[in-house]
Amino acid sequence: MMPLPLAEALISGAYTEAFDPIRDYNALYALAVWCRRFSPLVSIDYELAVAHKRNELRTLPSLHYGITIDLTGTEKLHGDIDLLCQRIDALFQYRARICAAPTIGGAWALSRYGPHTPCVARSIPALTEALTNLPIRSLRLDRLCVERLADVGMYTIGELLSLPRHTLGQRFGKPLVYRLHQALGSLDERLNPVEERARYERHRIFEPPLTNRRAIIIAIEALFHDLVRHLRAEQISAGLFSLIICDTTFQSICKEFPLSSATNDTKHLLSIIQPIIDSMRFCGEAREIILRAQDTTRSIKEQRSFTAQDFDASEIARSYRELLNTFGIRIGKDRVSFARLNDSYIPERSFSYESAIGALQEAHDVVMESPAPYTPRERPSTLFSTPEPITTIAMLPDKPPSCIQWRDTRLPIISGYGPERIAPEWWRGELRQELFSTRDYFIIQDNTGRWLWVFRDQRTHEWFIHGSWT
Amino acid sequence: MSTFLSYSELQTTTNFSFLRGASHPHEYIWRAAELGYEAIGITDHNTLAGIVRAHTAARDAGIRALIGCRLDIDFQGHHTSLLSERGSEYERTSLLVYPTNRASYGSLCTLLTKGKSSVSKNDWFLSLHDFLEVQDQFVTILIPPFFQTRLHSAASENHQGALFYEMCKIVRDNSTDRLLLSIALTRNYTPSNRSSCAIAIDIARSLDISLVATNDVYYHLPERKPLQDVITCIREGCTLPQAGFRLFQNSERHLKTRQEMHRLFRDLPQALSRTSEIVAIASSFSLSSLTYTYPEEICPPHTTPAQYLAERVSAGARERYPGGVPEKVLNALDDELALIRELDYEKYFLTCYDIVAFARSRRILCQGRGAAANSAVCYCLGITAVDPQQIDLLFARFISKERREPPDIDIDFEHERREEVIQYIYTRYGRNRAALTAEVVTYQARSAVRDVGKVFGLSAAIIDTLAKSVHRWRGSVITADSLREMGLNPFDTTIQNTLILASELVGFPRHLSQHVGGFIISHSPLHEIVPIINAGMESRTIIEWDKNDIEELGMLKIDILALGMLTCIRKALALIGARRGESFELHQIPREDPCVYDMLCASDSIGVFQVESRAQMSMLPRLRPRCFYDLVIEVAIVRPGPIQGNMVHPFLRRRNGLEKPWYPDERVEQILGKTMGVPIFQEQAMRLAITLANFSPGEAEKLRRAMAAWKAHKGVIETFKEKITQGMLANGYSEEFAETCLNQIKGFSEYGFPESHAASFALLVYASAWIKRHYPAEFACALLNSQPMGFYAPAQILRDAQRHGVSVCPIDVNTSAWDCSIEYERSDSKQHLRLGLRLVRTIRRSHAEALHKSVLEDGPFSSINDIQGRDIKVSHATLATLARADAFTSLGTARRPAHWNIHALPPETGALDSLLSERDSETRVSLPPMSLQRDMFSDYAMTGVSLKAHPLQFLRAELSQRRVSTADSLSARYGIPVSTRISAAGIAITRQRPGTAKGVVFITIEDETGSINLIIRPNLFEANHRVIMMSHVLIAHGKLERVGEIVYIDVEKVGSLDHMILKTAQREDRGSLPH
């Protein structure tokens, strides 16, 4: 372990990537599913699955990233087991440690700590022999247990086997006995087979294929209702729906419906999806239609409030979300954005536009770290995107101009307040790059009664107009 | 024109309002003086911590500093109609107060003490009620809240306005003198400023309260705005881009010119003239009028302190000199007592005497150090231990008439028992009258880089890299090259800004902590002199000022310090007493024992006080101490001061007769004669200034102080330089000689020892060396029982003891007590040192003592089951710890079988389980035996000591192949020629990088035959920083060098052998496999 900057200093231009256990997990899972071609019973480590469920992948030792395949009864299919191991090894494009053994525990130990790979133990005695020299931690034991065994001088499974078996449980805990017996085959152990993960999917095969546009739309709608019913029953919301239509030539049309926020509201979904389906063009026949719900999350049941005020608030938030979904599907999610206030004195930085994607959850609970020091009436209702230069007649520092000239128009000023002095955010390097210097802002009123926001650049002494009140 | 503009700033926040103000108090003062201000008020937030510095700076700058404070007040309990309407629990508002006289200053301190005592550290609560009670004593300036509170809407603005109106009204109605009350007005170019000023003016008019112009400053120059932003972020725990509106909008909060202030308030001239009125009232109080009295109850009734002191001193003198008090001492006593009388310090000396007498009565060893050892009175009172007859005392170093500064007495106590003394002081004088002084913890380069880096949002890894590269001992600036070396871009603005601002932040106070032992005791309640706050530690209170502040104000301080060596000596004396069968005291140690000096000359000094460091050990054979005074020099010479003043080599040459001492005249010879013409002690530097350059003793003391603070205030010493040169030239010395003298005096600026202090320490050096020479077993035992202390770990202390013929017995549950002990019952003549259970890591003292008690009462344990069977509550975890430490050998059980048996013990809880499953603890199994190597490693892991083997001996075969020499083979008696290229390997036991060695690192490594000294040059160190600092086992290649008996290697190449050690351990793992 060394800190990243040090590593980068040692090897300049080293390619680095952040550790992403979830991605690793997903890749391994996909690989396990792929391995079902060898046997229907394929599993990932039980510890790995548990850690994933508890969101503790980060702390799990990498030893647990492994796949177990149950080959029982597949001998006829694969022929010699050595050959099979070599085949699997060759199929993988990366280095894998492969081992075949009569017990899961034995295979686990040999594949992790065995002397070579691929490694095959054909019988229990052969396995026992092979395990003798392996360290005790290859029995899938926790650190404490391994340490306690080390305290009495036990380092290998062989040494452990030489001890009277009946005393082990009370001294070092039941797990040790279980693991030992599981490895040696005197205790049964089961796999938790993996399954394909597209759980929220409905498909229908049409024989003969559908040719009628109306029939296709009805079929899609039926699938849609079926899927959403299923989602609702499981209290699942989806953020992405995809529709796949395969024709007889196995070419397919694929249409995706990305949503800004996950939902399972039938009415709302229909209102978004139906117009698009109606406008879709189908060519040829539809042999199979698949509707899949992805990016699923557990849907949170919102309890409606009794008080009218809160009810309105949650209702507004809900309809706001639905509006954004509709906009997003119609004109593209990335084209919808909203404005938010920022904690900055600099007028240009006091707000920003943000994409509506994913920002919705926080949209109605944006908390400013500290309240703004100015009141809304002290900022113009229209802020120009860039300040426009003006010429002025100004008397003194700290005094508003008595007359300004803006875009060839001469405006006599009848009253004004100020200045408000705004210093640059020096830590952005602005002091050095001279992008921004201290400004003195004045609120002034011209002879037509219009209020304007002007400032004087402290460094160049030039005047600009930056906004107006309507 | 400008001469008519008068202005005083009355609202200033310094950096003693931690993480708020961005300028030092003295910076404000200097700037205010520069701007021609009439006065400047210092108003830190709920604290007076910075005022003494402001006061001092103002005195030097010739400007008036008004002592004030900004108080945050809670409305809680004041049920105004507005509050109940709003329903909030309380509102906080702020106001400035300036005391007008000594009594009102006392009330302010009491108020601050109150505000801080009721809540936890760093928190504050003061109710309006508390304030109103004492309000009339202060000049009060109300601060409209909207300058600080940000608003969202007009409604809340009105609410704030109404609230402030209410507050003003309450305060006005409570006040009897309208002169003392004002409302502050600040014009700071913020958007809400205009309306809030208007409201404040309205309120002032309607309530008939005067307005006063202020600028509410947070830094003295506008250029400090970035630093202010940074500390705001540190305070709020956010990064700069996140900080948003928590920062100030612009950089207007600095000290502005008078013209500018007059321009800003041109419409309100009365608010400007009000500042002068307030200055006139508030300047009637100054910190110089703080008077302070020592406690009075230390004398018995019907005696004056002077009589009592004289009586105690003469009684003490008779005791110290049973054969009659020498003339010289009598004279010194008379002179000192007269001066003490004149300066009225009797009570101070009696207070110290009282504390020392208490320690004696509890048999706690104590000894005064520092300048106090210059006093014969202190010697007679038993405060110090340096006989004035033996060395030449300079009483002026301790007390001088013209300085009128209080003497400073530092007393060391046994480190394990100092708390008893501290609690005695608290009970004797009460918490109202005794408190510890504060220590102002300031930002160091490392902490500044860490905090500033976070504010700039640098990643933890980069901050770590930056912080680790700031070598604390050098404090140098990071160069572009070294940044590149760390893998950072030196042109990155963020990193540049971080480094610039971090270096600005260095020296800023960060928080108050407690001083190591500086006690302040007064006759009148202390909280009327200075606010008292709760310290981080339970049952400790501290005042807000540090020792410099106190000194500045002439207040008494006694340093109650802890010294591990005193604990060690006391324990060793007790053991020696037990062996001799009669009590043995420190003063019974025979003086000037030649064997002791023989031992020291051979640099055999591991564990001996002070002279056990690498630098001292290499100095011992060169200096060859033969008498007590040589030890005094030895202690003082290996210090940055003498080393940087280039005094060491001339002294050694002269002492070894290679050069004759030379004196320009008799006067110099008198001063420098005893140190061969080379100034080594601070007193000599002072005397030189007095005699040669016509300094008065007071000036000389000032010079010494300037030298001590030279680093902090560069340039101060330059003023003295002029004076010394002029004075010496006037006295007829050559310019060249003046230059040499000056450089030597300057050398003391780093760190010099007063002779009296060196003498106090030398006493302990001699005492500990004597014990080590004559009672090595007792000495090692006492050292181990006083850990942690000193330079060496238990393993080294034990190996040293073994070299001196002590036999060391391992830890054993049947014989070891908590402490290490000496065993006598053996028939052979050797001394046996039995290691105690305290060496075992993670063991609880109560468990260890319970075990030992059981052994003493019911006889030795026969088995582990026996331990469990007896009625002592020892957990399985403790037993396992003991097993790991191999403490069951007397039960015939080695580590592994012991663990085996412990695992089979019935569980401590869950009785049901034990009923259900049958336990067989008696199953005999043959566990694989432990190899010596693993045994040794386990010993090290659990106790830091192994009596079985040395780790290096397992590598020896391999090392011999690589032609690595042993320590023994390098020793001088084999006569390997100097400059031979050799290699050596060993465990790194000490690494030292003294500030004086220009970056050279001294390392001692140890193999199974002895220790080897390495010298690592700066370049090599920089290149192998990690290896050298992190490795446990080092291998070094380089040239053999020799000075006298001492052999060292000038290292050219260094590496780590940690991996080899690990490999041998792993090999052993597999070693038991049936291959």
Question: Please, could you describe this protein's structure?
Answer:
The complex is a heterodimer of chains A (470) and B (1075). Chain A has 470 residues and is of the alpha+beta class. Helix content of chain A is 34%, strand content 24%. Chain A folds into 4 domains: 18-184, no CATH class; 201-328, Dna Ligase, domain 1 (2-Layer Sandwich); 336-373, no CATH class; 382-469, no CATH class. The longest helix of chain A has 24 residues, at 308-331. Chain A is elongated and about 105 Å long. Chain B has 1075 residues and is α/β, with parallel strands linked by helices. Helix content of chain B is 45%, strand content 14%. Chain B is built from 47 helices and 21 strands. In chain B, strand 20 (1033-1043) and strand 21 (1046-1056) form a beta hairpin. Chain B starts with 24 loop residues before the first helix and ends with a helix. Chains A and B meet through helix 1, helix 10 and strand 14 of A and helix 8, helix 9, helix 19, helix 21 and helix 39 of B.
Q: Report the sheet-strand fraction of chain B.
A: 5-15%
Structural class of chain B: alpha/beta
Give the averaged pLDDT of chain A, no decimals.
81
Low-confidence stretches of chain A: 361-369
Runs of chain B with pLDDT <50, length 5+?
79-90, 147-155, 910-919, 1069-1075
Proportion of residues in extended strands of chain A: 15-25%
**N-C termini distance of chain A:** 61 Å
What does the oligomeric state look like here?
heterodimer
Shape of chain A: elongated
What is the 3D form of chain B? globular
* Integer count of domains of chain A: 4
Q: What is the share of helical residues of chain A?
A: 25-40%
